[in-house]
Prior knowledge:
This protein is of the alpha/beta class and 338 residues long. The protein has a domain at 5-185 and 212-243 and 297-311: Rossmann fold (3-Layer(aba) Sandwich), CATH 3.40.50. 35% of the residues lie in helices and 16% in strands. The chain contains eleven helices and eleven strands. The strands form three sheets. The chain has a seven-stranded parallel sheet with strand order 3-2-1-4-5-6-10, sandwiched between helices. The longest helix is centred in the N-terminal third of the chain and has 17 residues, at 100-116.
Amino acid sequence: MSEALVVAVSGATGHLGGLLARRLAAWPELTELRTLGRRPMPDLFLREGTGTPGRRHRELRHHVHLQADVRSAQAKRFVAGCDLLYHLAAQVWVGSGKGALEQMRQVNVEGTASLAAGAGATVLASSVVVYGAWPDNPLPLTEDWPARPNPECGYALQKLAAEHACADVAPSWTAVRLSAVLGSHADVRVLRALAGYRVVVPSVLGCAQALQWLHEQDAVEALVAAGANVLRKERTGLLVNAATADWLGAAEMASLAGSRVVAAPRRAVLAMSELGRRARLSPFGADRAVLIGGPLAVSIDRAGTELGWRPRRSSREVLVEGLVGGWRQAPRNRLPAS
C-alpha cells in the first residue's frame, strides 16, 4: 500500500458510507479522504475517538466533502485521480411517478461508471440480490454461480449492471456482494419493516427461504479488507460475497421473533407487498418481496481466502439484536450525532 494514499467514499452520508469513512481514519497511509454524498457531512476528524490514537489533529489526513449527485460532472472531477474509490452511493428504493425506474438506473449504473472511470482502483458495494432468489438455488451460493437477478427487482438488475460497468471502465476493481445489512445506523424504513417480523414472517408457498443478516460493522470490515486487497493489485475483477456463515429460514426467524410464518402463493405475496408499498405501509414492494421466493444465502469462503475476512457475528445474533433492541432511535442514513 502506498505511503501517501488518497481515498474517496461515495454515498458517505448513507448507512455504511459514514461508518466506512470513520473507519478509514485509522489507515496510517491515508493522507486525504474525499467524501461524496447527497447531504452535508461534518468533519470526521473533529469527533472524539476517531483517527489513530496519539496523533495530533494537524497530523491527521485531510478530509474534504462534496455534496453532489453522483451523476454530475462535479462529482466526477472530485473523485478523479484518487488511488481508491469506495463506491457505496446507490438509490435503493424506486421512486414514484413516470420515469422513476430510469432515474434509479441512471444513479446506480451511469453514476457508477462515471466515478469508477477516474479512480485508480474501485471497490463496489454490490449485493447478493444479483444472484436472484430462485427455488433451484443451491445452498450456499458461491461467486461462481451465475447471476440471475429476479426481473421484478430493478435494484438487483442495476447492481449487476454496475458490476459490469466497473469491469468496462475501472482500471482495477473488486465487487463486494453484501447480504442484508442491519445495525443501529440502518435506514429507519428497514428497521420498521424488520419490526413486522414480530407479527408475521411472510413466506412463498412451496419455496424454501434462506436469508443472512450481516452486522454493519462486519460489512465495513469486509469493505476495508477489499480495498486493501485491490490496492495490493493481487487480483482485479474479484467478486466476493460478504455475509454470515449461517443463514435462517422462515420458521427460524419466526421462532426468534416470537411470531409465526404465513405462507401464500407467489403472486399473492407480490401483489400484497406492492399494495403495501403504494399505501406507504412498507418500503418493500414486489421488487423486494420477490427475494423470499427461494434461498438466497451465500458462501463466504472466498472472502476468507482472498481477503482474510470473517464476520464476528452470526445471522441469528444480528437478527435477535434488531428484534429485541429495535434500534428505535436509529438515524435515517446519518452519522450519529455524537
